[in-house]
Amino acid sequence: MSNLDRAPVPSVCGGRGFVVAEPVRELLSPRHVKLGESTEVRRLLPNLGRRMIGAWAFVDHYGPDDIADQPGMQVPPHPHIGLQTVSWLHQGEVLHRDSTGSRQTIGPRQLGLMTSGRAISHSEETPRQHARFLHGAQLWVALPDEHRHTDPRFEYHPELPEVTAPGLTATVILGELDGSRSPGTTFTPIVGADLALSGGTDVRLPLEPDFEYGVLAMSGEVRVDGVPVLPGSMLYLGCGRSELPLRAESDAEVMLLGGEPFAEELLMWWNFVARTQEEIEQARADWMEGSRFGEVKGYDGNPLPAPALPPVPLKPRGRTR
């Protein structure tokens, strides 16, 4: 997954100085961004006032889009450093290719997890023969310093553990929820879960008080701790919660994202998560020169060129602007 902005704004994030230590209800509105030729996404992180939730540093929600007569998602080969990508679908398919040689079609509620480590490149596209609708989320997880130069790799997990209660089915994408753990590799204390709620369901979901959390609404009508959260928006919840009240006014689907507040200060620009401007500049130069990031084989098209760096110096700061 890629940030396809041709003039990306540097995002400074991380550090615990701005983490909200108590429960809050902070509604985050999305920014609309074009992803490829025919897909528009709603970008929730980084947001104007909120940069991260735990190690979650980037969240896009897209669809449901009717792509019966369209190519759907078409994202050319592009580079990443310092992060993991999470592909998560409710409808449709995405064909993933990367420079480690991985080629995998990812379907609804299957985990495609790519660890960029020191450097990787990949492409994403809707297969030529595809379902009518495309609906999902694309997310990044920042890697801590001791793991951000690890070897790149891709994981595919078609089956994931579930937590159930009357009216609720929770699929554990990453980390652990209520004793069930995802097989996906993680490098920080984190949780990601997909919650399917039947209309009229009232439930209290167990949480870790030391984690900060956010809830992304995917579909339907849902109240999160009493707050209506519309599809394509996210409610930031802060820390200090041992449980989360959820009520579905109709059949609804949301994603729970959380984790231990990320202590390090980060610098995020285009598709790179780094610590200094020099790292960003070197990664951009390596990509444009065709070194370090390998080759994505099989994609019908040219790699994505890197945009120009902004004229002002980049500097990592805190989690909020």
TrEMBL record:
<protein>
    <submittedName>
        <fullName>Pirin family protein</fullName>
    </submittedName>
</protein>
<dbReference type="InterPro" id="IPR003829">
    <property type="entry name" value="Pirin_N_dom"/>
</dbReference>
<feature type="binding site">
    <location>
        <position position="80"/>
    </location>
    <ligand>
        <name>Fe cation</name>
    </ligand>
</feature>
<feature type="binding site">
    <location>
        <position position="122"/>
    </location>
    <ligand>
        <name>Fe cation</name>
    </ligand>
</feature>
<keyword id="KW-0408">Iron</keyword>
<feature type="region of interest" description="Disordered">
    <location>
        <begin position="298"/>
        <end position="321"/>
    </location>
</feature>
<dbReference type="InterPro" id="IPR012093">
    <property type="entry name" value="Pirin"/>
</dbReference>
<dbReference type="InterPro" id="IPR014710">
    <property type="entry name" value="RmlC-like_jellyroll"/>
</dbReference>
<feature type="domain" description="Pirin C-terminal">
    <location>
        <begin position="193"/>
        <end position="292"/>
    </location>
</feature>
<dbReference type="InterPro" id="IPR008778">
    <property type="entry name" value="Pirin_C_dom"/>
</dbReference>
<feature type="binding site">
    <location>
        <position position="124"/>
    </location>
    <ligand>
        <name>Fe cation</name>
    </ligand>
</feature>
<dbReference type="Pfam" id="PF02678">
    <property type="entry name" value="Pirin"/>
</dbReference>
<dbReference type="InterPro" id="IPR011051">
    <property type="entry name" value="RmlC_Cupin_sf"/>
</dbReference>
<dbReference type="Pfam" id="PF05726">
    <property type="entry name" value="Pirin_C"/>
</dbReference>
<dbReference type="GO" id="GO:0046872">
    <property type="term" value="F:metal ion binding"/>
</dbReference>
<keyword id="KW-0479">Metal-binding</keyword>
<feature type="domain" description="Pirin N-terminal">
    <location>
        <begin position="41"/>
        <end position="141"/>
    </location>
</feature>
<comment type="similarity">
    <text>Belongs to the pirin family.</text>
</comment>
<feature type="binding site">
    <location>
        <position position="78"/>
    </location>
    <ligand>
        <name>Fe cation</name>
    </ligand>
</feature>
<feature type="compositionally biased region" description="Pro residues">
    <location>
        <begin position="304"/>
        <end position="314"/>
    </location>
</feature>
